[in-house]
Amino acid sequence: MMEERQRRTLCTDVVAAGFMNYGLGSTFNYMIVQMHRALRDRRSIAFVGEWVYAGCEHRNFSCAFEPVSPCDLRGAPLVYPRMAPDPTPWDIEKGFAACFQGRQNPLFHFVSTLAGFLFKPNQEMLLAAEAVRKKIGLPDEYLGIHIRHGDFCIAHTVTSDPKECFAVSHYSQELQRLSDRYNITHVYLATDNADAIDMIRWQCPQLTFYWQDDVDRAFLELKDQDLERKRIFLEERLFDSDADRRQRHLREIMVDLILLSYGFGFVGQFSSNISKILLALGTFLRGGKMVPYISLDIPWCWNGMKPTSIPGYHSLWQC
């Protein structure tokens, strides 16, 4: 239904949707909210505007993903809907909503379907992921783990953001638990922390790890001058980078996202929007079959999170 509407609608009736240049996962969340609004309003949608991660000629989402609309709406007035309560499949067309009736956690499967429709890697990114997979010898069956440090860790210490940054040992314990349960010993590792690679290999010697070995992780590290200038988040450094630097970083991220989304199981933390998107994408790629996962902090939820006030819990989030 989504595909049919997107292709058959006159371009004059398409919503020109803008997006915020926030963190990667937050931007993806915002796009899903926009897609839900379009379905609710019986409209088609096109995403327009420059993306801070994009370094190809068009500087937009086509640098990484297949376009969701054939319409070129560059220069059109953009729509920026506010983040609203969780999207729901019950306020869209009945034919599409019926797909989610009777399912356990229909909101998750609705979001998973929207994510799968929106985030289809383009040919360049698929070829890059396949080249890395062959180079590192990644087998067909493997677990995925996303260790988010970098700006994610620094932000919660110097801002009011209460998300918690976990030590590598916390990740390794949960990864071992998932490995033991499903008897899978191969693991694809994505991280912005170069030290985490050796640490988790030492902590889990019985597991075989695979990762991108040519990622410029030095670019991801916060320098003293970044903190002095309050350039805490990666996006702030990308704004100052040239097109080649942006596109290289985007390609590295997309390879991780693609390979993680095809893993048999996943370890992350759902206070990170990327982890939430990965679970949704992985489930979509399996035809709606839930991916085994472990979150180090909160359960999966959509865009509404708040810090808890329960005594004795530090930096814990609730949906």
Number of helices: 12
> How do the SSEs run, as a string of H and E?
HEHEHHHEHHEHEHHHEHEEE
What strand line-up does the widest sheet have?
5-4-3-6-7
Tertiary shape? globular
Specify Rg, calculated over alpha carbons: 20 Å
Rounded mean pLDDT score: 81
Q: How is the main sheet built?
A: 5 strands, parallel
**Percent in helix:** 40-55%
Tally the beta strands: 9
Question: In CATH, what is the class of the largest domain?
Answer: Alpha Beta
Write up what this structure looks like.
GO terms for molecular function: alpha-(1->6)-fucosyltransferase activity. It is a single chain. With 319 residues, this protein is an alpha/beta fold. It has two domains: 2-118, no CATH class; 123-318, Rossmann fold (3-Layer(aba) Sandwich), CATH 3.40.50. Helix content is 41%, strand content 10%. The protein has helices at 2-8, 24-40, 94-97, 106-118, 123-136, 151-158, 168-182, 194-203, 224-228, 234-238, 243-261, 273-285; strands at residues 14-17, 44-47, 143-147, 186-191, 208-210, 265-268, 293-295, 306-307, 317-318. The protein has a five-stranded parallel beta sheet, with helices on both faces. Helix 2 links the parallel strand 1 (14-17) and strand 2. The longest helix is centred in the C-terminal third of the chain and has 19 residues, at 243-261. The protein is globular, with a radius of gyration of 20 Å. Residues 155-160 have low confidence and may be disordered.
